[in-house]
Amino acid sequence: MTSGVVSITICALWVDCTSIMPAENDTSDCILVVGVSRPKIAAAFLTIALLSLFLTFHILYDSAVYSLHTTTVIGTMDETVNDRDETQQQIDQSPVMISNTAHFSLTNRYLPQAIIIGVRKCGTRALLEMLFLHPQIQKAAGEVHFFDRDENYEKGLEWYRRKMPYSSKGQLTIEKSPSYFVTPEVPERIRAMNASVKLLLIVREPVTRAISDYTQLRTHVATASTAITVEGSPRPPQSSRSFEELVIRADGSINESYRPIAISLYHNYMHRWLEVFSREQILVVNGDQLIEDPVPQLRKIENFLGIEPKIGRHNFYFNHTKGFYCLRNETSEKCLRESKGRRHPRVSPIVVTKLRKFFSIHNQRFFELINEDLNWPE
Ligand SMILES: *[C@@H]1O[C@H](CO)[C@@H](O)[C@H](O)[C@H]1NC(C)=O
Ligand SMILES: *[C@@H]1O[C@H](CO)[C@@H](O)[C@H](O)[C@H]1NC(C)=O
Ligand SMILES: *[C@@H]1O[C@H](CO)[C@@H](O)[C@H](O)[C@H]1NC(C)=O
Ligand SMILES: *[C@@H]1O[C@H](CO)[C@@H](O)[C@H](O)[C@H]1NC(C)=O
């Protein structure tokens, strides 16, 4: 585009000088001749030519310096990076020179090499934060929801890549979106991105998970209905229905279509993943053990991801006030919030026993699929 400007200027200069010059004159002296005969016009053309040349190189130089700058300096300044996404995109897409510059850069955004696909309420956030203690791991901020939401998936892989953090060669980029696990289209879509991607699936004992799910849903409904009441149109709060009422049908059977129960039927979703990916590509993490004693679980994960074992006991301490692990690296500390601070309701032991019995056969199916027994209570 910029070189177009330059050639147009040269052209104009050319046309002008042939029109004033005698035909027998050597055209290579064109500028000199113009300089003598019409000094003002010549000066104007020269200025334009020089200006456009200057602008061309200025733009190229700027973008080269910019891409070096962003890739070396910005890594940690996430806000700034997001603000500059558009500029970064233009640079990424310009075909010449700049792409060569990118090879020198220390950091860049890469598509994830590993994805935490779920399960919701099983500790996906805790798992990601724990892995982030490792110097070779970079994590995407928030949940990207690229593969499960059509409106995001339509934006394409380049959009997805720009949601990823900066990382250097040798580092792994990890993303987590718990609803990937239960969304039918997702396994195929992930395979289309990278057929050898590594997948992490964290699961908890299904009854515990269902209660935790119910607790979160209830909190959300409660918050929503409060908001409605404030607006002046009170509604009968659905949230008042207990876990037991929602889970057990009138005839005493378990309501399998109640979402917190449905999602805990892991085998219903797992088989889809195993139709698309090999078993070796999916690591099943025991979420109950990860919370109780994180280091041995993390050792397995480091091994699976092919990174050096670096996360150790020194990265964790137990806060007795919170009753939960806190994470620390060399520079900072972060405490995980168990169930985001929500207390689980007391569920009738009879219902828990009933649910455990109900899940027992489903758990067996799941264990057969993954070829691993997680020893959940029956
Ligand atoms: C695909 O995933 C594998 C496993 O994480 C990784 O080694 C490889 O670099 C990825 N390929 C691309 C193109 O990102
Ligand atoms: C089962 O759960 C679904 C979803 O929450 C609900 O629509 C349905 O009414 C429940 N069925 C019974 C019999 O409670
Ligand atoms: C533990 O958590 C409590 C509550 O958030 C906090 O006030 C306290 O400083 C923490 N203790 C340690 C040792 O981090
Ligand atoms: C330590 O953790 C903080 C926040 O989790 C992160 O910003 C920082 O880069 C980490 N430092 C190191 C040396 O890994």
From TrEMBL:
Disulfide bonds: C326-C335
Catalytic activity: alpha-D-glucosaminyl-[heparan sulfate](n) + 3'-phosphoadenylyl sulfate = 3-sulfo-alpha-D-glucosaminyl-[heparan sulfate](n) + adenosine 3',5'-bisphosphate + H(+)
Main location: Golgi
Transmembrane segment boundaries: 41-61
One cellular-component annotation, GO: Golgi membrane
A UniProt-annotated Pfam family: Sulfotransfer_1
EC number: 2.8.2.23
Any one GO MF annotation of this record: [heparan sulfate]-glucosamine 3-sulfotransferase activity
Membrane topology classification: Single-pass type II membrane protein
Gene3D superfamilies assigned to the protein according to its UniProt record, in alphabetical order: P-loop containing nucleotide triphosphate hydrolases
Protein localization: Golgi apparatus membrane
Keyword list, A-Z: Disulfide bond, Glycoprotein, Golgi apparatus, Membrane, Signal-anchor, Transferase, Transmembrane, Transmembrane helix
Binding site for 3'-phosphoadenylyl sulfate: K121, C122, G123, T124, R125, R204, S212, Y325, K340, G341, R342, R343, H344
InterPro entries: NST/OST, P-loop_NTPase, Sulfotransferase_dom
Residue span(s) of domain Sulfotransferase: 112-345
EC top class named in words: transferase
Superkingdom of the organism of origin: Eukaryota
Active site residues of this protein: K121 (for sulfotransferase activity)
Record-given protein name: Heparan sulfate glucosamine 3-O-sulfotransferase 5
